[in-house]
Amino acid sequence: AKVGAWRRGGIPMQDAASTGWVPEDGSPPGTRPSFLGGPGFRNVLGGQARSCSAGTKRRPRPCSLRNLYGDDVSPSDDLQGDLSRCRSDATVAVSQIGASPNKAAKSLAVLDLAGCSTPEVSKQSMQDKCASRATTKDTSCVRTRRQVSFRVAMMGTITFVVFLCCGVMFIPFELFLQSSKSDSEKLRFIGVERQRGLINDLVYHGVTASHFKSSLHSIQAMVGLRVVDPPRQALDALWPSLQAWQKFSPDWNETTAKYRSVVAYRSWLEITTQFRSNSSIPLWAQPHAAWLYVAWHNEQFAGVHLDAHALFREEDPQVRVFMSDAAGGEHGVPTRMTTQRLNKIGEPVGQPMSLDDYRPTLRPYYATQEALWRKAQASPGGAGAVPAMGAWSDLYGFLDGGIGLTWTWPIAHCGNYGCFEGVLSADVTLKYINVVCYNNWKEITNNQTDIGESDSAVFLVNNVARLTGRQKGAIVGASHAKSAMPSIPGIITRAEESPQQVVKDTALALLWLFDDWGSEKLMRQEQLFTFQPSYLHETGKV
Predict the structure, then answer these.
(1) CA proximity to 495, closest of 542, 538, 429, 432
(2) Is the pTM of this model over 0.90?
(3) C-beta separation of 259 from 253 below 8 A
C-alpha cells in the first residue's frame, strides 16, 4: 500500500518515535514493510491496521479488518460500513505518518483499497475512483461494460437485417417505377401528337356536335311548346266557336256590342284555362298566349290580354285579365278602345281605361292577313281560289311596351279569302323565348366559370320573312336579352347589329359562310362550324 511517506524505491521511513509505526515482525525501523501479502502492522496504540493475504487482480482475496483501536471487523458486516471504516483507518494512518496536507490528499485520492478487497468493496472502490476522475479524463479508469441478453441482441440484428433488405429492394424498385412513368409520359405525349387530328375530329364531331345538336333540338321543342303551341291552341278554340255561332244563330252579327262582348268573354275563358293554378310550375313559365282578340275590317275590336307585371311578380303572382273593346264604324277611321279589368269570374272591376285614335287595321297582326288577302286577289283564280291560312306576323312592339309576334287567322266563314272580314290573333311575347334560350345556355355551359356572357350565347334568328322581307336576321330571342337586344320599346334588333359582341360576330360569320339568312343550306340541314373573329376582322370579311 502506498500510504503517507512511503515512496517507491524503498526510501527508509523515519524512526518509530517520530512516525508512530513499529514493524510487527521486529524489523528495524526504515525497512519497507510489505503491506500486501506480508505480515501485518500495529500502530502505537496496538491496533492492527490491516492483515491481508495475497490475491490476484481479478479475484482479490478477502481480508480480516481490525480498526485502529484493535477491534475486529467481521467481513459479513454491511459493505458500506466496511468501506467507511476502511477509509477511516486509512485516513488516520496517513495523518499518523505525518505527511503534508497536499500529499495526504493525493494519497487518499489514489488509495487502492486492496486490503479491503471483497468483490463488492472492490467494485464500489472502482466506481468511486472513476467518479472522482471523470472530470480529469483519466484513461486508467475503465468503465464497466453493460451486459445485453442474447435474445435482445438477436432481435436487434434480425430487425436491422430486415430493414436493410427492404431498403435494398425498395430503392431499385422506386427507380424502376420512376423510369417507367417517365417513359410512359413520353410515349403518351408522342401518341397524342401523332393522333391530334383524329382526336380533334372525334371530339369536335362526336362530342361537341352531338351536344350542340341535342341543345338545338331541345330549343326547338321548347320553342314549339312555349311559343308556337299556345297561340295556335287559342285560335283553334276561338275560331270554331265563331263558326258555330255564325251557323246556328240566325241573328248573329259580330259587329254589334252584344256579340263583341260574347267574343271577348269566349277569349277570356280560353286564355285563363291555359293556366293551371295547382301546378308546381310558376305562372309565368306555364305555356300561354299573352293576347287573344278579333279585329274586323271596319275598325271594330274585341279581346282580352294578360297583365304581364302581375304574372311575373315574385310575390303573389296572379293571372289578371283585361277586356278591350272598340266600336269602330268605318274602315280607315280611328276609333276609341276601352279596357276593363275582370275578376276571377269574368266580372268588371274598377274604372275602365281608354285609348283614343286606335286603328286595328294598321297593326302588324292585321297587316299580315291583309297582305295575304291582297296577294290572293292578285292570283290567277282570284281571292276565292286561295284557301284561308294561318300566318305569323313580323316582330313588333305591343301596346304594353313588350316585343313579340302574333299568330293570325282570317275571319273567312266561306273558307277562302273571297269572304275576308277580319283577323283573329293570339300574341306571344319574347320574354318566354328569352327564358327558353337562357335555360338551354345554362345546360350547354353546365355552370362552367370559364364560359360566360362575353364569349357564349344562345339566340334565335328570323331567317325567313316570307311576307315583307324586312326582318331577315332579326333576333327573336336570346339567352342574354338585355345584352343582345336593346331595351327600347318597339325596336327590333338584327343579329349582325347586336350590341353583344359574340352574337354579332357569329351572325357575321354565318352571313360570310352562307351569304344569306335564307340560304338553302341553312334551311335544309344543320350546320356546325368554327370561326375566328380576329381573322374575319383582319381580312375584312366582316
Answers:
(1) 542
(2) no
(3) yes
